[in-house]
Records
---
Amino acid sequence: MHGKVALEEHFAIDETLQDSAGFSPEADWPELKARLLDIQDRRLREMDSHGIEVMLLSLNAPAVQAIPDQNKASEISRRANDFLAEQIQRQPKRFGGLAALPMQSPDLAARELERCVGELGFCGALVNGFSQIGGNESGIYYDLNAYWPFWAEVERLDVPFYLHPRNPLPKDAAIYEGHRWLMGPTWAFGQETAVHALRLMGSGLFDAYPRLNIIIGHMGEGLPYSMWRIDNHNKWMREQNRYPAKRMIADYFRENFYITTSGNFRTQTLIDAMLEIGADRILFSTDWPFENIDHASDWFDAAPIAEGDRHKIGRDNARALFKLDQTVK
Ligand code: MN
């Protein structure tokens, strides 16, 4: 399919490059490093040869979210966002920007998002899970009340917020001890991000700000497959678990969330997601440079789904959600 839009697509700057080193065996690091630092060359060629018209670019992970000092986090965010804006200016029809945000401070994050959208022309934000604040052992999740003014600003600016994975902190990773292979994309990324997304849904955030649009990758981090059970467990019991939100969790999932195909190129999984959240809320993505563009595109282009759905997922949903006719010209 030609004209695809892909939106979980990463790059690195010198200051954040090493954050990605742990996610590849040493033998593959030179290749991954070259892919992360390239924007204008091989990336564009890969896009051209696999029918990707537009990439929305975002910083690698965990990057800003793993900087415990909020001023330093803010400085690195600005540096990455300014660099990205320059790169987009060189290919404004092919690239768009998702802002890195210093979520260590809800106020600084809101101001940086406003700057990125208003001054740099970015079309959303991508944040790498919880943020470390003050030290290396405290992770803060964004359902907390301190973040609600930030979310009010996201709603006011009317831009999507991509909640991207990171690994749990060592203190929260005891379950993986002795099984390091479960960290990262194998399992820990999805579990960490799914819990964060559920915290947002159960907190009542979407009752207060019903126009928020949150995106999660990797075909929904397992949530579509679990959605019925989350709302219907032990149905005969009179006292269900209670949470502050007013509605069923699935209601928020279907009305405030989008999912992408990043790093999860499996037709069976896509069809489950289509049945659960609907083809209108699924967006094509690759997860370059951690996954291959050809793996994502060759699978998606040939997946046995209706052509109408392929065009929605491959292009039309993203163009509408990010208002790409206004931002990527
Ligand atoms: Mn990614």
Note: Residues 8, 10, 164, 262, 287, 290 surround manganese (II) ion (CB under 6 Å).
---
Amino acid sequence: MSERSGAGGSHLGRTSGVAVVGWGVALPDTAVTNADLEARLDTSDRWITERTGIRERRIGGTTGQLAAAAARQALIAADASPGSVELLVLATSTPDQQIPATASAVQDALGLSCGAFDVNAACSGFVYALVAGAGTAGVGARRVLVVGADVMSRITDQGDRSTAVLFGDGAGAVVLDAVEGPGQLLGWDLGSDGSLRHLLQADVGGYIRMEGKEVFRRAVRVMVDSAEAAMARAGLTLADVDLLVPHQANTRIITAACERLGIPMERTAMVLDRTGNTSAASIPLALGDAAQSGMLAKGDVVLLVGFGAGMSWASAVLRWGP
Ligand code: ACO
């Protein structure tokens, strides 16, 4: 066994925090605008924009390709060699194959030689993967690559106007380094209510089906509850949030959650209008966009909040900065 693949052994028991030292995003080249959908479905730009906030979504590629592209960028940004990564966690609910995990293909594409596995918590997946990845730092992993990637277009019936207008494809990634002390992950909250799994589902080989109104109603409530729980765990209040990075499913859901949390939209990361709902990719895409556009400064408190099929929900509080 190589020294790399033995991560954890000699450090087991040491408790470390993590720091985000690099991030990357990837979107397919092909844009599908509301006008494109208008041309082939019984829908309108006005309906889609008013009801969802989405103007276009990107379609194409495979989950593995998009994940590898975002992860490669994150490694470059972190100045991290592939050999230094000690664990890859890929959040997706659209794996390229049933077996093996898509993380295996990403590992191969990037030339990594570490453990690699997929996490499926639907649209909450990236935050689940982040918390799981950070947890391994507590038992000795020194560098963890966390990716959220989904090709929702593959499980969306493009002839069904109630779902075809909502979803898109993409990926986002972060590199986490173990650091001495508490690190940047200040608090988290992961939750699930499996009795609600009928609200949003796709059978193996089938298309996504959703009770949109019911998902909407519950999404706002679980976002607010989860955000409050994570902030309390971090020992902070909602007034301390510098940037909210919510799951990008519907502008109306985000607006309603922001109102209840008392966080203004100016302090909320939004990419939904350009990406649609990219499931596990949506939070790292919005985080990357916020970082790129100068919305984040060293020391900022960043609150990630996801919800999705399961129903699942997940929040994480990060202290941004090198
Ligand atoms: N264009 C035009 N009309 C449409 C469209 C469309 N694309 N889609 C639905 N309609 C019609 C419906 O048929 C309905 O018509 P009717 O009144 O004649 O019956 C009318 O618009 C209203 O439909 P609703 O479903 O009631 O519309 P609503 O305001 O609830 O918006 C939406 C629908 C956008 C899906 C909303 O409910 C929503 O965003 N829900 C949450 C979805 C979500 O977040 N899903 C992702 C979770 S993440 C994950 O895990 C993948």
Note: The chain is about 30% helix and 25% strand.
